[in-house]
Amino acid sequence: MKLAVLYFCRRRIQCVTSFVVHGNAAFDQRRYRQSSASNAVTSFLFQNTRLFASNSSAKNSIPEISFDQELLDTKRIVDQAIALYSKNLQSLPLDASAIAAQIASLEQEQSDPDFYNSNSDRVTKVNQDIAAYTRKLSQLQQWDKWKDDCLVALEMIQDETITTNDERSLLLSELSTTATQLLKDSERYALELLLSGPYDQAPARLVITAGAGGTEANDFVSMLYRMYERAAANMGFSVTVEDTQDGDVVGYKSVELLITGTNAYGMLQGEKGAHRLVRLSPFNANSKRQTTFAGVDVAPDVMNELDLKDIEIPDSDLEITAMRAGGKGGQNVNKVSSAVRIKHLPSGLQVKCTQERSQPLNKEIALKRLKLQLLAIAQEQRVQKIQEIRGDLVEASWGNQIRNYVLHPYKMVKDQRTSWETTNAQAFLDGELLDDCIASYLRWKAEQDNE
Predict the structure, then answer these.
(1) What's the rounded Cα separation, in Å, for the pair 209 and 97?
(2) DSSP code of 391?
(3) What is the DSSP string of 161-218?
(4) What letter does residue 394 receive in the DSSP assignment?
C-alpha cells in the first residue's frame, strides 16, 4: 500500500512539473488545477504516512494482548486437565505401586516352566491381565509426566528473567500442547469408567446394511463405512474388513468390519440402530431431495467357548441357508455353496459368514457370532435367557432412526437419543467428531441406568 501511494504521488508530481516547464499561458488555469492536485496529493501522502505510523504502532502492541489472552486460555485448559487428572486418580482401584506389584506377581507366575502346559484358559487370563495392568501403569506414568511438564512450563513463563517474546511463545506453545493431551486422555479415561459391561473390553464386529432408499442407500453405506474406518483410526482402534457386498450401481449393500482395541465394543455399542440421510441425491435426474436409511449392528467379538457353552439354541429357532460366496477365490467361492447365513427366527436376527472355504467352518463361525449378538441383545433387554429376547429389532426405515445426517437444505448431524448435534456435517462424516457424539451417548446411558 505504501509503495502504491508513493508511486501515485511521484507520477502526479512529474505531471505537474511537465506542465510548468513546457506549458504556456493558455494553460495557466490547468496548471493551477494541477498544482492544487499536487498539493492535495502531498497532503494525502503526509496524512497517510502518519496513519501508517499509527497502524505500525498498533500492530506492535497486538502481540502482547494476544499473548496474554492466549496465556489465560491455556491456564484454563491446564486447570481443567489437572482437576480431571486428580479426579481420575481418586477413582482408580489401585495406585501405581499396587499395579506394579500385580504385574510382578503375574510375571512370576508366567515364568513357571509348567505355566504354558497348564489350563489354557488360565494362560489366556494371565496374559490379558499383564497386558491390561502394563497399559494402565504406562498411562499413569504418562499422566504424571504431562502434569509435571505443565507445572514447569507455567513456572518458566512467569519467570521474570525470560524477557524475549520468542522464548515465551515457545513455552506457551509447548504448555498448550501438553495440557491438551492431558485433558483429552483424562476425558477418555473418564468415559472408560462408564464401561462396566462384561463385553465392553472386547473387539467390536460392526455390520452396516443398506435400508430403504435403493442406490442412494448403497451409497450411504459407503459413507458410513468411510466414517467408521476413519473414526476408529482416530480413536486408536484397528479396522479389518471382514466382508463386503457391492451395490448394483455404487456403494455397498453391506459391509462387515472387525474393530479391535481396548474397549472397542464398549465405545461403539451405541452406534447400533437405524441411520437416516437427507440430501440432494446425485442419482436423481431431477436433483430432488431424498431420504435414505442404513442399519448398523454392533456385537462383541468374543470367540471364547466358556462364554458360549451355556447358550443353547433349538434347531427349530434357526433357519440355515447355504449360498455361493462370490468374489475373488476362483471356482471354490463362485461355484461351491460355501457361504452360510443363519437367521434366528424369534428375533429376526441374521448372521452371514463367508470368510472360510469350507461350509461347515463357516456354519460354526456364524453360529458363534449369532450367539454373541444374542448375548449383547439379552444384556440390552435385561433378560436372563436367550429365549426371552423380544423380536423387536430395529429396522432401517422411517421413524426408527437414532441419528439424522441432514445435508440439505441445511447441514446438521443430530443424535435423536441425546440431542447432541453439530452443524459441521462434513467433519462428522470424515470421522472427526464421532468420538464426541459417542461420549455424549455414554454419559446419557449412564444417567438412564442410574434412574
Answers:
(1) 48
(2) S
(3) T---HHHHHHHHHHHHHHHHHHHHHHHHHHHHTT--STTTTS-EEEEEEE-TTTHHHH
(4) P
Most confident of 262-266, 312-316, 331-335, 419-423: 419-423
To the question of pTM greater than 0.85 for the whole model, the response is no
Q: Are strands 318-323 and 204-210 parallel, antiparallel or unpaired?
A: unpaired
Q: In what order do the strands lie in the sheet with 421-422?
A: 238-246, 252-260, 204-210, 289-300, 273-280, 401-406, 412-415, 421-422
Edge-to-edge strand order for the sheet containing 339-344? Answer: 318-323, 339-344, 349-353
Instruction: Give CA–CA dist 361/267, Å, rounded.
Output: 30
Distance CA(110)–CA(52), nearest Å, equals 75
CB atoms within 10 A of CB 46: 10
Q: Nine-digit cell at 350?
A: 441374521
The C-alpha cell at 278 is: 437427507
| Amino acid type, 249 | V
| Residue 22: partners with Cβ closer than 8 Å, 6 or more residues away | none
Q: What pLDDT is stored for residue 356 in this prediction?
A: 80
The residue behind cell 513455552 is 171
Say how far apart CA 301 and CA 271 lie, in whole Å.
16
Dist CA 188 CA 195 (whole Å): 11
Least confident of 64-68, 128-132, 168-172: 64-68
Nearest to 409 by CA among 294, 293, 290: 290
Residue bearing the bigger pLDDT, 65 or 331: 331
Enumerate the β-bridge partners of residue 412. Answer: 406
Q: Nearest-CA neighbor of 401 among 415, 411, 382, 418?
A: 415
Collapsing DSSP states into helix, strand and coil, what is residue 413? Answer: strand
Q: Quick check: helix, strand or coil at residue 126?
A: helix
Which three cell numbers, joined as nine digits, stand for 176? 498448550
Report pLDDT digits (tens) over 79-102.
999 999 998 888 888 888 999 999
By DSSP bridging, strand 412-415 and strand 401-406 are antiparallel
In angstroms, rounded to a whole number, what is the distance separating the alpha carbons of residues 372 and 350?
Answer: 12
